[in-house]
Amino acid sequence: MSKIRLLLVDDHEIVRAGLRMLFLAEPDMTIVGEASSGQEALRLVSELKPDVVLMDVAMPGMTGIEATRRIKEAYPDVAILALTMYEEEQYFFEMLHAGASGYIPKRAAPDDLVSAIRVVSTGNVFLYASLAQYLLNEVINQPGGAATPSNTEELTAREREVLIYIAEGSTNREIAEKLVISPKTVDRHRENIMRKLNMHNRVELVKYAIEKGLISVK
Fold this sequence. Notes:
Distance between the termini: 40 Å
Number of helices: 10
CATH architecture of the largest domain: 3-Layer(aba) Sandwich
Shape: globular
CATH topology of the largest domain: Rossmann fold
Helix content: 40-55%
C-alpha cells in the first residue's frame, strides 16, 4: 500500500520537529518535504507532488490562506489541511473558501491530527468538532433557517446511521467500531450515501443532515 506523502508547512522549526516525530511513527505516512513559508510551500508542491499539505495559517510574507488558494488553483488534487493556533470563525471560513479540506487547531490531540490526515488524503473533509460548529451555524442562519425535518426514505436505516456519524465528524474507523462493522463496509455505505444524495464531500453531508433534522446544533 502506498504511503500518504506529506508536506509540512510552518514557520516555526520546533513545530515542524514535533510534527516530524509524530508522523515518522505512522507506517502509512511519509514526509516528503518541509517549508517555512507560503512561497516555499508553492515551490515544493510543484517539485514534490505531495498528497497532503499540512498548512499553518499565519506566516510572515505569504499567508497560509493565500498559499492554499494558489496551490489549489495549480494542483487541485492536492489536499490541504490547516493546522493552526487560530480558531476564529474568520480564519476557518477563509481557509475553507481558499480550498482547504479541513481545519484543526494545534491544541488537538495527536491522534486527531493523524486521523485528519487520513481523512483528507481520501478526498473527504475533516472538521474538528468545536470548529464544525461554525459551519452548522452558517446553515441554520441561512435565509429561512434550516429546512423542516422530512423523511430520508432514499437511505436505508443503516445508511442514515452512517450519515449521522459522518456529519458529526467521526472517521471511518470510529464509525466501524461504533456500529460493529468493518471499515470497508463503512466505505461502501458512504459511497451509497453520496450517490443517492448526489453529494461529494462531508461539508455537503453536514448541511444535509442539519436540514433533515438528523443532527442538531447545540
